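Quick entry between incubations.
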Amino acid sequence: VRGRCAHRMTALKDIVTRQISRTGPLTLADYMALCLSHPEHGYYATRDPLGAGGDFTTAPEISQMFGELIGLALAQSWLDQGAPDPFVLCELGPGRGTLMADALRATARVPGFHDALTLHLVETSPALRAEQASRLPGATWHDSVVSLPEAPLFMIANEFFDALPIRQFQRHAKGWQERVVGLKDGAPVLGLTDPAPHEALDHRLADTEPGQIVETCAPAQAIAQEIGRRIAAHGGAALIVDYGDWRSRGDTFQAMYRHKPAEPFDSPGEADLTAHVDFEALAGAAHPAAHSALTPQGVFLEHLGITARAQALARGLGGAALESHVAAHRRLTHPAEMGSLFKVLALFPQDAPPPPGTGLPDPS
Ligand code: SAH
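Done. Structure below.
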């Protein structure tokens, strides 16, 4: 196994260095896309990052309560919108399929919900598609949201948008410098382009100073736009859960290897690469769909009744299982853990109520 790893690392590092010598420095987006999504040697193509010996864990892997409550929130939104039949139940980047399996179990007794749904999963990794197939028989897979059927769309994306390739720009007296990946002594290193004006960033001149960094994520905006268009046209609701904030501020590009922060340029393809999500950009791109207030994950889950659900589950548990259940509840909701770093943004039709657990933004 070590031999295989070493081989893979060399393969992707070679691809990155060869590409830079051929075409010049890569944008961070190009570097991220190569590392994560190279069809043969990319991070997601070669492993299940959530499995035993993986690099990170996620809310649905921490407790079944997460997927259950998400499923019930989507089912309530479906009822609020008159129980459209048929409709698309969709997840973007379903990982091991755990969240959706928990959501389906929890909604089995919502009258008509399962009869009306067809299950669609947007996933590019063959390794994770196989994991998902074992837990979600009967699903249809897509490479992108574009090929989903045109129908009411009820969907969840948990820790999906953080994996999409970002670009970084550093403000300069004469415009912006892009942070790019070049080569030093044959190894990938971060560098800066010459400063130039950048029309798409004009709106950030008011809230940044020279030296500060802003991030953009064109693929995230394109996906939010497509989801927003579908929800406005056909009805539905999207729950987008991730780390990030309202507007991008500073450098949030990060690598995780075996649950520890790592150096993003050291071993291309071996570490998970992510960035914080700019929810303001997603909400803007999703227009004409309406959006909720950006809601901390802990607040969202409390509104949905996680404490009552946790107490009900605790009654059947004792010893170490009870301790780990209590710890999982805390981990999902406590502000010092995932409760406030992670946020929820809901998208829904202008004439429908926001999904349960979220609320309307403050009027401004
Ligand atoms: N939602 C899951 C997994 C999060 S990891 C959970 O909460 O456990 C990110 C997921 O998004 C993985 O399934 C990964 O393969 C998928 N993914 C990453 N980039 C993608 C892209 N461009 N298109 C489709 N899926 C992608």
